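Field log, afternoon session.

UNIT: design team B
ACTIVITY: writing a sequence onto a fixed backbone
BACKBONE:
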């Protein structure tokens, strides 16, 4: 299975290397800042907070894999990339699974990626 996805990112190489998405894309200088900011949301639930070696900051992990829009699934077009690039609300509903590689960068923050598969995003 080969899937092509569209992702918005200001540092796609770092995203691919990291392999996980931060909750709300938010980053923090310390692990304690991240815990404090999200404590109202998570309450006593344990948070998965990771350090990003490339960005030199911490993020609360939304999920492993990169948030994205599905464009092509096993050669079948699922969505129009140009339409998404023009109209996306940045609420990416799927996440990559398996190996991810960069196919093309469009110069406007959008990137076409190829991955082994995808799943719907969730907090679990």
């Amino acid at each position: 299975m080969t899937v092509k996805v569209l992702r918005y990112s200001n540092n796609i190489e770092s995203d691919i290397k990291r392999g996980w998405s931060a909750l709300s894309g938010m980053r923090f200088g310390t692990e304690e800042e991240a815990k404090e900011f999200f404590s109202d949301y998570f309450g006593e639930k344990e948070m998965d907070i990771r350090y990003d070696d490339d960005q030199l900051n911490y993020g609360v992990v939304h999920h492993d894999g990169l948030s994205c829009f599905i464009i092509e699934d096993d050669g079948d077009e699922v969505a129009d990339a140009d339409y998404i690039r023009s109209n996306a609300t940045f609420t990416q509903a799927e996440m990559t699974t398996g190996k991810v590689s960069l196919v093309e960068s469009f110069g406007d923050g959008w990137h076409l990626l190829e991955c082994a598969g995808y799943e719907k995003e969730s907090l679990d």
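LOG NOTE: The chain is about 20% helix and 45% strand.
NEXT ACTIVITY: expression trials, pending approval
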